Amino acid sequence: MSNELQNIKNRFGIIGNFPALNRALEKAIQVAPTDISVIVIGESGVGKEFIPKIIHSESKRKHQPYIVVNCGAIPEGTIDSELFGHEKGAFTGATATRKGYFEVADGGTIFLDEVGELPLQTQVRLLRVLESGEFMKVGSSQVQKTNVRIVAATNVNMMKAIQDGRFREDLYYRLNTVQIDMPPLRERKGDIHLLFRKFAIDFAEKYRMPELELEPSAVHYIENYTFPGNIRQLRNLVEQMTVVERNRHVEVEKLADYIPMESHLPMVVNTPNTPKQNDFGSEREIMYKILFDMRNDINDLKSLTSELIKNRGTSDLSSHEKNLINRIYTPETQQNVAPGSLLYFENNSNHNPVVQNPTIISEPDNSYEDIEDIEIEENRPESLSLQNNEKDLIIKALEKHKGRRNKAADELGISQRTLYRKIKQYNLEE
Questions:
Q1: Residue 66, strand partner residues
Q2: Lowest CB count within 10 Å: 133, 172, 246, 329, which one?
Q3: Which domain holds residue 71?
Q4: 360 and 214 in one domain?
Q5: CB–CB of 35/51 below 8 Å?
Q6: Do 119 and 34 fall into the same domain?
Q7: Is residue 113 in some structural domain?
Q8: How far apart, in Å, do the first and last CA atoms of the chain sit?
Q9: Shared domain check, 178 and 83
Q10: What is the C-alpha separation between 87 and 238, in angstroms, rounded?
Q11: Distance between CA atoms of 162 and 165, rounded to whole angstroms?
Q12: DSSP class per residue in 202-223
């Protein structure tokens, strides 16, 4: 690391040796002697405000004004007046002529923080200043000249803002002559402990309290924390712990109380090329997949059970195992449907009687020669259409009772109201 870079870090209190951080500072030093526009890109709280300070202090404009403008904090109706000034009577409340930031900072540097929040009308005015150095006050027809260097910063995805029509593409490329990227704190794991110690010393001196120290386990914990608020969040954390904590040796359990690791869930990002899906539809598809997977697992378990029965024989099976096997190979419809109903006989006609008879387990001479039939029955593809099966049963019941719906409903084990609804659903009223 060069002496110039180290001197800059010492002057502005910048802590860290992360390569991306060093590269950002080096670019700021290199472009400082020129007048080209610079845009600083980075998340909120990463320290973007240091870059324009470095650029201004290392430029030939260092003895001229340096003005910081938070574009997101100025109301849309007054931002033009703040930036470019206004004439007396230009609007309600304009009781006197006022100079704007571009007029006051003539010869110096303006730092436009959160430039992505500028209104479109103001963006047009700003583009003219960047192109020709000319502007007009609100309510004035006189063109004024200014010699101002602009350094902008934003945490907004500028390409996304351009696609959405919230930011002018020509203004972006005019500001983005040189782009400086500030890395987030989560990528600077080696610098996190250094920053913690720096803040701990500063706040211990400020509040006249002993300095905080991290245990080795706490150091590992804090270095693996994501820090969505970046350096600002870390600074506030140290200040809070300095004032509140009595024990100056911070352990991982205490640190976890302030920044719990599990509280930050992964964020779902919708890319521009990915179509937005219906949440309910996705959940339904997931449930269907789970049910089908469970069905396949059950069939696999039944096949495995049949193999075990063939290999072990009936003599080695306990009574508990025999009961379990009977429960597995007995259709569920027998448990829920009355024995005298049509549904019961319909199900009985489609299954092997050897499988459905629970008494086969108790026969000592049975060697399970029909196990192969069980395996074939369970692996046989079945119709997944419940509606077709239900419709067929209703038709059979109506034919059996010659169209008498009350008798058919009793046969099916359902209410007459349900039967009427099913008949209408399947268009069986003829």
A1: 109
A2: 246
A3: 3-183
A4: no
A5: no
A6: yes
A7: yes
A8: 91
A9: yes
A10: 48
A11: 5
A12: HHHHHTT-PPPEE-HHHHHHHH
Query: Residues of the chain with pLDDT > 70: what percent?
Result: 76
Token digits of residue 13: 């209190």
Q: What are phi and psi of 318, to 5 degrees?
A: -80, 170
Is there a domain that residue 227 lies in? yes
**Structure tokens of 49?**
């405000």
CATH number at residue 209: 1.10.8.60
Q: If you search the block for the tokens 């973007």, which residue do you land on? A: 48
Specify the pLDDT at position 143.
94
Residue 423: its H or E element: helix 416-425
Give the containing element (helix H, strand E) for 149: strand 149-154
CATH of the domain at 124: 3.40.50.300
Per-residue model confidence (pLDDT) at position 424: 82
The CA-atom distances, in angstroms, between 250 and each of 199, 221, 416 are: 14, 11, 72
Beta bridge partners of 63: none
pLDDT at 277: 46
What digits encode the pLDDT tens for the residues 79-134? 999 999 999 998 888 899 999 999 999 999 999 999 999 999 999 999 999 999 99
Q: How many CB atoms lie within 10 A of CB 341?
A: 18
pLDDT at 393 exceeding the cut of 90? no
28 lies in the same domain as 161: yes
Predicted local confidence at residue 101, as pLDDT: 96
Residue 316: HSE in the Cβ half-sphere, 13 Å Cα cutoff: 7
Q: What are phi and psi of 53, to 5 degrees?
A: -65, -45
**pLDDT at 281 > cutoff 70:** no
For 155-164, 220-229, 318-327, which range has the lowest pLDDT when averaged over its residues? Answer: 318-327
- Domain with 399 in it: what CATH number? 1.10.10
The total of structural domains in the chain comes to 4
Do 114 and 16 lie in one domain? The reply is: yes
Residues 77 and 94 placed together within one structural domain of the fold: yes
Question: In this predicted model, what pLDDT tens digit does every residue of 303-342 receive, in sequence order?
Answer: 777 777 767 666 666 676 667 666 666 654 444 445 544 4
Evaluate whether residue 331 is within a structural domain. yes
Q: Give the count of alpha carbons within 13 A of 116, CB side only.
A: 20
- Is 224 contained in some domain? yes
